[in-house]
Amino acid sequence: MGRNIHDIFVIGGGINGCGIARDAVGRGYSVALAEMNDFASGTSSGATKLIHGGLRYLEHYEFRLVRESLMEREILWAMAPHIIWPLRFVLPYHKGGIRPAWLIRLGLFLYDHLGGRKLLPPTAVLDMRHDPAGKPLKALFSKAFEYSDGWVDDARMVVLNARDAADKGALIMPRTKVVSARRENGLWHIETTDTLTGRNDSHQARMLVNAAGPWVDHVIRSAIGQNEAHHVRLVQGSHIVVKKKFDDVRAYFFQNPDNRIIFAIPYEGDFTLIGTTDRDYTADPRDVRISEEETVYLCNAASEYFKEPVRPEDIVWTYSAVRPLYDDGASKAQEATRDYVLKLEGEGDAAPLLNIFGGKLTTYRRLSEHALEKIGAAIGVKGAPWTAKSHLPGGDFPVRGYEAQVDKLRRRYSFLADPLARRLVRRYGTKAELLLGNASGIDDLGRLFGGDLYEAEVTYLVEHEWARHAEDVLWRRTKDGLRLSKEQAQSLEEYMAAMPAMAG
């Protein structure tokens, strides 16, 4: 006991929780955040990894969400040009297809003009008989529309928000479960348990923010004790990763006969990412796994377009996550709103509670700003909005400066192979030099665990980014799990088990 009283205590270390914590501490609030697992271990690392307006949301008339998302693309790209970059999407079309050409053209016209696009190139029409994008596709698709969106390393975006919040003074506590939260004398009294050590702690806060994602209703019911909480509609989205299906740097947007869409996206250099599915989910979000039905669906949907079919045996990795959408009563999972909803509770002298429902990667920064408006109204305003012109750690270089940053790193560390230099800049940006330190040769990076994952990178992730297990490194801080064998991953786990936890 005897803890300082925080202005804000945030439950949840996904993109919304970490984004709110970062924005709040940057305005001068004292902030604590608790995440029961690792950062981005739920929904925030299970996305299609796009920074996009959401072309298909136009069909559901979600114009405000699409406009806000479109406006955020270039803001986020400038904030984090190491982990976010532009991507062109090819939307193949044939006569008699799911949507008429005029409707696609109208949607893409709105997409080009709704959101203040400045740097991203506009829509184009492709002759697929001559454009390289037509090469891997069936001859049926002689025409395509091409448009711009963005790509993001989703889990890294989460941990970099957490890192920046901690650097600005927030108390950031991964692997810390909130077991109870009660109002008393105008404050929240919060009890937590460290899931690694079993240590119990007590905290006090003027305001509680529930950003627990799929567990938001569970937190309201179990930790806070309101038994009637049923606000969230859980929708499962699954993805498959296969060996590279095409050499083009562009991604594909495929329309399916059931009116759903999937993407096929160049992934981690040697692979293709295909997804997503949309289906209601009622089990524990912790147990979400791709189903056989979803696997078959994604393989069949992609095979409708590619000359060479996608087969289940081609799959090298799958991942699934549950999206916590606000339950708006939509009849189909794919029609449920992707917009976010912020609900403020607390009458009179009762300590306020802000529940966060829904949201998506692209709008996390604006969601955070809107949350800070609610927080300011509840406990007093501190500071002005600031994140639009900010940089996430490592992102302090020009928006189109990735190649120059790679060249700079290779000039300083001439022993780095080009693929490793590129990966380090993609993950860490200007922080790659901090990771490499005074290394003058490849041997100075220490033990090689597999692929091009060296001891120096693992040490950096433990010391600066709260990594504790091989899974944290291989599937969230990086995607080196695609390149390491089970034996190599186990060796990494054993090595990390002997390391002290350092990040703070």
From TrEMBL:
Chemical reaction(s) catalysed: a quinone + sn-glycerol 3-phosphate = dihydroxyacetone phosphate + a quinol
InterPro entries xref list: DAO_C, DAO_C_sf, FAD-dep_OxRdtase, FAD/NAD-bd_sf, G3P_DH_FAD-dep
Family the entry assigns: Belongs to the FAD-dependent glycerol-3-phosphate dehydrogenase family.
Ranges in a coiled coil: none
Residue ranges of domain Alpha-glycerophosphate oxidase C-terminal in the record: 387-499
Record organism: Rhizobium sophorae
Keywords recorded for this protein, A-Z: FAD, Flavoprotein, Oxidoreductase
Protein name in UniProt: Glycerol-3-phosphate dehydrogenase
Cofactor: FAD
Domain FAD dependent oxidoreductase: 7-336
GO biological process assignments: glycerol-3-phosphate catabolic process
Any Pfam family: DAO
Recorded GO CC terms: glycerol-3-phosphate dehydrogenase (FAD) complex
Enzyme class: oxidoreductase
Protein's gene: glpD
EC number: 1.1.5.3
GO molecular function, one term: glycerol-3-phosphate dehydrogenase (quinone) activity
